[in-house]
Amino acid sequence: MQEKKYFMGVDQGTTGTTTLILDEKWEVFSQGYAEHTQYYPHPGWVEHDANEIWIKMKEAINIALEKGEIGINDITALGLDNQGETAVVWDVETREPIYNAIVWQDRRVDKEADRLSEEWGDVIKEKTGIFVDSYFSALKIKWILENVAGAREKAERGVLLAGTLDSWLIWKMTDGRLHITDKSTASRTMLYNVDTGNWDQEILDRLNIPKRLMADIRSTSEYYGDTEPDKFMGGSVPIAGSIVDQQAALFGQSCFKPGMVKTTYGTGCFMVMNTGDKAVSSDNGLLNVIAWDLDGQTCYALEAGIYIAGAAIQWLRDGIKIINGPDEIDEMAASVPDTDGVYFIPAFTGLAAPYWDQYARGTMVGITAGTTREHIVRATLEGIAYQVKENFDLMERDSGMEIEVMRVDGGPVKNEFLMQFQADLLGVPIDVPYITETTALGSAYIAALAMDEFDSVEEIDAKWKLKKRYTPKITSEERKALMKGWRKAVERSKSWVE
After folding, report:
1. DSSP 8-state symbol, 454
2. pLDDT tens across 197-209, in order?
3. Given a cut of 80, is residue 283 above it in pLDDT?
4. How large a percentage of the chain has pLDDT more than 90?
5. What CATH number should be reported for the domain whose range is 6-246?
6. SS3 160
């Protein structure tokens, strides 16, 4: 009889934490979810309470354990993925954050990013593989050090630590024994030198961030240590993987060969292409990032980020209140033959790739007296798909690789209208797997790999299963006409905030 083993993937996302427990057959055994609060103290500012995220992560884990009727010590290994560029600074003496975590969507350092880009942007791009933007962690950390009373003095005294949420949560899980991050997450900070594989001292000095604040950089799939029972639900569980969320989804989608692409539809929407052992530079606004590091072998990726996807659907419900919940939008969108000329650009916090316009704002154009809420709902879903199409085209151009199929995951892939429209726009099939929580799945896979549960990624690849394929149903002429209207609409939203 096969020994019972359980592997845990924890996806710490922008709006909440998902815990996935997989059994020894790599089928979903149970899962849990806990939402945390979004704070908007000023226009363009977005914050999270790092302590609340720690509590909610444990809550999501506990829900999954209770559903599965197992205990924390039944878990063979735990892998964690994190929301990326969101930054937190904490005091090792009080064991408390000195300020809320500043979220990747936050725009408070836009003007400073503009100045830094003008003065030093080429140097940072060459060193880090990414360009200067308030999206990344570096200027968020700098802002906290400069704007929280006593922070600079504490930093110089060596009692502060800084990092992304993986660093904070692992530090909490191990009762302060480990202050680490992995290469994929480090490459999101604008502080990581892709050539040396370490924090770049020159950039740190330029931003006045003491290196002692930063985490040790480790491999993506590696046994780091055990959780501290007194601090982590009474369990001593091996932590054996840490990765940034979108790269976790790439791993969970078994995109192990160069040219394979996945798109995750969540709060935002992120398309990532595996480019193998070669870093591909983009002149069109795509990010050259590290996908993962396994046993010293680095896999690179091209990434296109869209700030607002599922968050636009949430806005329909909570903001303008024209829907009761996401379950009804599929039927509403399909109830009208088109948007009747309405385009919705959901640039609530600016536009990411390919525009990188932090001053763009949400815009709806083409409204007439005949516009209904069904048209607006459909335009919202189409607005997500249009953004993906633009980045899809750039990814093919910059990589020189033809994308034959796109694997998708995340909550909105349940929406059949969105998936069919996406296939129509791209002109290639869209594949939905059986397990759509591929971000948490990917983090569980990397932990199992570190614990020798797999001999190779090929073994993981064999477990990927197709649930549904959407194939294109419109002509290339229809596709071009739709995109022409979209691009015209985008121009109306750009550089709105002065």
Report:
1. -
2. 999 999 999 999 9
3. no
4. 81
5. 3.30.420.40
6. strand
pLDDT higher than 50, residue 494: yes
At residue 166, what are phi and psi to the nearest 5 degrees? -65, -45
**Residue matched to tokens 């539809």:** 265
Nearest-angstrom CA–CA distance, 459 and 487: 43
Q: How many Cβ atoms from other residues are within 10 Å of residue 35's Cβ?
A: 12
Distance CA 387, CA 4 (A): 44
Taken in order 191, 194, 199, 203, is the CA torsion positive or negative?
Answer: negative
Write phi, then psi, for 188 (nearest 5 degrees). Answer: -95, 0
Fold of 255-433+465-498: Nucleotidyltransferase; domain 5 (3.30.420)
Q: Which two tokens stand for residue 228?
A: 């501290």
Handedness of CA 421, 423, 426, 431 (dihedral sign): positive
Strand, coil or helix: 27:
coil
| CA-to-CA dists, residue 326 to 265, 422, 468, angstroms | 13, 18, 20
**Structural domain spans, the chain:** 6-246, 255-433+465-498
Strands in 194-318 per DSSP E: 198-199, 216-218, 221-226, 238-244, 261-265, 269-276, 287-294, 297-306
What is the radius of gyration, based on Cα positions, of the chain?
A: 22
CA–CA distance from 89 to each of 51, 68, 174, 216, 295 (Å)?
A: 12, 35, 17, 15, 30
Residue 437 is encoded by which pair of tokens?
């929580």
* pTM for the model: 0.89
Distance CA 7, CA 17 (A): 16
Same fold, 6-246 and 255-433+465-498: yes
